[in-house]
Amino acid sequence: MKTCLVVDDSSIVRKVARRIVEALGFQVIEAEDGVEALVHCKKAMPEAILLDWNMPVMDGFQFLGTLRRMPGGEEPMVVFCTTETGIDHITRAMGGGANEYIMKPFDKDIVMAKFQEVGLIALGEETAA
C-alpha cells in the first residue's frame, strides 16, 4: 500500500485529509510541522506528501527544500495544499520542487484529480468513499 504523509499544523485539516487520502487507498502518516515530517521521511520515504505552507517550527517551503536534498527525497510526489493563492507562491512552490498545488479548502475530487495528474493513482481509480 502506498503511503501519504499529511503535513499541516491544523489537526482538523489533517483529519479531513486523512479521510480523503485513505479513501483513495493510501496509508496515512501525519505531521504537524516540517521538522516532524522530516523525521518521518528519514524513517521511511512516503510516495506522496500533502503539504501545508504556513506552519510553525519549519514551514512547508523550508521542508520541501530540505526533503529534495535528502537521499531519496526527489521521489515523493509533493502536493502543496495551502491558503497561499498568490501566483508568486505557486511559482515558488513549483520551482522549489512541488509537483502540484491545491488551494484550501479542498475536497476529495480535488485531491483525487491532483493525485491522478502526478501519477499517484490511475485515471478513474477510486476506492471506497
UniProtKB/TrEMBL annotation:
Q: Which SMART domains match?
A: REC (SM00448)
Q: Which domain of life is it from?
A: Bacteria
Report whether Phosphoprotein shows up as a keyword of the record: yes
Q: Which UniProt keywords apply?
A: Phosphoprotein
Q: Which Pfam families match?
A: Response_reg
User: Which SUPFAM superfamilies does the entry link to?
Assistant: CheY-like (SSF52172)
List residues of the Response regulatory domain: 3-119
4-aspartylphosphate modifications at: D52
Example GO BP? phosphorelay signal transduction system
Q: What is this protein called?
A: Chemotaxis protein CheY
Q: Which organism is it from?
A: Bradyrhizobium cosmicum
Which lineage ranks, top first, belong to the organism behind this chain?
A: Bacteria, Pseudomonadati, Pseudomonadota, Alphaproteobacteria, Hyphomicrobiales
